Amino acid sequence: QKPILEVNGLKKYFDIRGGPIGRKVGEVKAVDDVSFTVREGEILGIVGESGCGKSTTGKAILRLIEPTAGKVTFLDKDITSLNNSEMRSLRKDMQIIFQDPYASLNPRHTVEKIIGEPLLVHGMDSVKQRTERVQELLEVVGLSPYHAKRYPHQFSGGQRQRIGIARALANNPKLVICDEPVSALDVSIQSQILNLMEKLRDEFNLTYIFIAHDLSVVKHISDRIGVMYLGRMVELTDKNKLYDSPKHPYTQALLSAVPLPDPDLKRDRVILKGDVPSPAKPPSGCAFHTRCPLAMDICKEVRPVFNPVEDNHFVACHLYE
Ligand code: SF4
Ligand code: MG
Fold this sequence. Notes:
Rossmann fold; 11 helices; nucleotide-binding
């Protein structure tokens, strides 16, 4: 499968300002040199604890926030060099679904207006056409066309996320970045939404980047999974490889906390020491060295390179160099 998206050396640093005149006193390296490729039609999961930079990565890819450095190639175009109007027309093809569907839907607009807005923005001027398309989209996400005249507060959380999905799909995008789309939902609703998203992927040839903090959620839906820690991608490979033979000590620790389907099998539980360090003061060398049970001297000094250790399996760790 050819790549639809290539992310190369992506960085997003935020200034920290302080004092009476708001001088720059430091920076947070929210995303620090992240590279990966997404193939057409796949679902790439990205996992990590909150604050690891996964949402920022998603937003920087779409240029909803401007990357500090790096190159993003989408459909063979270097989108980091596009001007605003070129970017606007490309946005049709790349969409985002947010974690909190309530916050991302305007409470004063009807569903019809909410889903119709991206259609209008991209040139569907006819009210009749828009109304028809909205009805079609509501059906696609499993809602009744009668819902078109209602307001977001009249729906349950799961239904609101369906509305968010309908809005994202309005203009037939190719890539959808899903930023924790089920994290705010009840567990019983989560799998319904995940099943819907999988069905839509097949039906409309979508490619997803699926961001989650919960390994069991990405396991369900992803083809490949990338693991992030403190702004860096530390491991990336096929879902089964990642679950069966994780290589990075951080991935091993994360997985050791996930129950196995067969209760007779047990992984050794790896308990990490301490908390995640502040991204404003990431440890030197390997950012994981302060918590890694296998840390060596070199880990404090030298940042490990994100390298393939075997075919289609990338790891950033000195144990494999
Ligand atoms: Fe642990 Fe060193 Fe590997 Fe980092 S580079 S994960 S500290 S062994
Ligand atoms: Mg987030």
